[in-house]
Amino acid sequence: IVHILKNGAILGELLLSEEKRAFTAVAGTDVTITVLSKGSLGDLLATTPAISKNYIRLLSKRLAKVEREFGEFGHTWSYNRLSKVLLRLCEEHGKETPKGTVIPSRLTHEDLANLIGTTRETVTIQMIRFRRMGLVKRLDRFLVVNKPRLVEFGRS
C-alpha cells in the first residue's frame, strides 16, 4: 500500500513519466473516477498554468512524503512507524468521537504492515501492545485511536 486516498484525491499522476503503470489502485468503498488520457493531461497542463502549478504541487507533496517515509524506514522501530501511520490516518481520514478518533476504514493488520514496511505478525504484536497501553481499541471493525496518548507515546 502506497497511499490511502481521501475523497477528491488524484491518482495516477505518474502517467507522464511511466510507460506502464507501476501500481494498481484498489477501491475500499464505492468510488466515482474520472479518467484523462496521457495526451489530454499533457494538453491540459500545457494550456492551463493554474492546473500545471497545482499538478507540480501535488507531485512535490507526494515526493516529499515518500522521501520522509523512506528515510524513516532505516532509522525507526516498527512501533514508531506504526504510531506515525495511525496518527497520519487520524489526520487524513479520522472522525472525532467521544471515544476517540475513529479511522473509518476497515484496515487489517496486513494493510498496516504494508503501510509501514513490516510483517503482519509484527503489527499484530504492536497492536496488542498499543491496546494494552490504551492507545487504540476496536469499535466494530474500525480502529479508535486515543490521539493525545499516541502523540505522547511517539514523543517518548
Note the run of SSEs as H and E: HHHEEHHEEH
Shape: elongated
Count of β-strands: 4
Which regions are unreliable across 5 or more consecutive residues at pLDDT < 50? none
Strand order across the largest sheet: 1-2-4-3
Structural class: alpha+beta
Helix content range of the residues, please?
Answer: 40-55%
General description of the model:
The protein is an alpha+beta fold. The chain has helices at residues 38-47, 49-73, 78-93, 109-116, 120-132, 147-155; strands at 95-97, 100-103, 136-139, 142-145. A hairpin with a 2-residue loop joins strand 3 and strand 4 (142-145). Helix 1 (38-47) packs across helix 2 (49-73), helix 3 packs antiparallel against helix 6 (147-155) and helix 4 packs across helix 5. It is elongated. The model has no long low-confidence stretch (mean pLDDT 88).
Give a summary of the structure in a few sentences:
It is built from 6 helices and 4 strands, in the order αααββααββα. It is an alpha+beta fold.
Give keywords.
single chain, 156 residues, alpha+beta, 4-stranded antiparallel β-sheet, 6 helices, 52% helix, elongated
